[in-house]
Amino acid sequence: MSRLAVTLKLEMTLQRRYKFLHAAVFSGILWLALLLPMPGHLRSTAEPYVILGDLMIVGFFFVAAAVFFEKGERTLHALVATPLRFHEYLASKVLTLTTLSVVLAVFVATTTHGVHYNLPLLVLGATLGTVLMLLLGFVSALPFTSVSDWFMPSVLPIALFNLPIFHYSGLSDAVWFYLIPTQGPLMVLGAAFDQKTLTTWQFAYSVAYPVLFAAGMWLLAQRMFDKYLVAKTGGA
């Protein structure tokens, strides 16, 4: 069994211990309680915003919580001394939490819309958005030793990544919103519910830019991991 497979198994065990699945189910129930009383046409309008909010919870807050749990249990310090590579460690978190987020998004969409939405676009938008939120949450948590220290500074990056809501809703047409990587996933989620048809360049932007931005955040995450954990524990 490869190191990544072993790490994935360990990650799923840790997430069960941290009750992430329970929290995700509770989040899904809350979103359903918000959506189901709405008329059908309003559900389609609200759905992209709801799913983006869910990606924020599962992506940003779950991965940050995992980092602080592992710091508290000194799991991260122990990992530095093992042959496990950073990419394997982070990939296990991204794969498991992205899967959880996408499954939850599909569940909410199917419960509220049946099969009357574009499943491939929903999965694509949810995957891109979750990966971005995960990496943002991971990077934002590394410099801090406790949730109380992290919580207030975390408001700024999460607010920045949610700014495309103003552009998508028509409150602003400023082109600089396209510099924010969550603009693309939000556009894809809207297309999944037939709100706006994406042109070729919009679809290419919505996929390519978030992927490139996520790649840059991944490299930043490795540097910050080395700075705030490996260097402080004397790891190589």
Automatic annotation (TrEMBL):
Alphabetic keyword roster: Membrane, Transmembrane, Transmembrane helix
Q: Name the chain's protein.
A: Fluoroquinolone transport system permease protein
Question: InterPro entries from the xrefs?
Answer: FLQE3_permease (IPR056926)
Q: Which residues cross the membrane?
A: 20-37, 49-69, 89-109, 121-144, 150-168, 199-221
> Which Pfam families does the entry link to?
FLQE3_permease
User: Is Repeat there in the keyword field?
Assistant: no
Q: Which organism is it from?
A: Kibdelosporangium aridum
Record carries keyword Transmembrane: yes
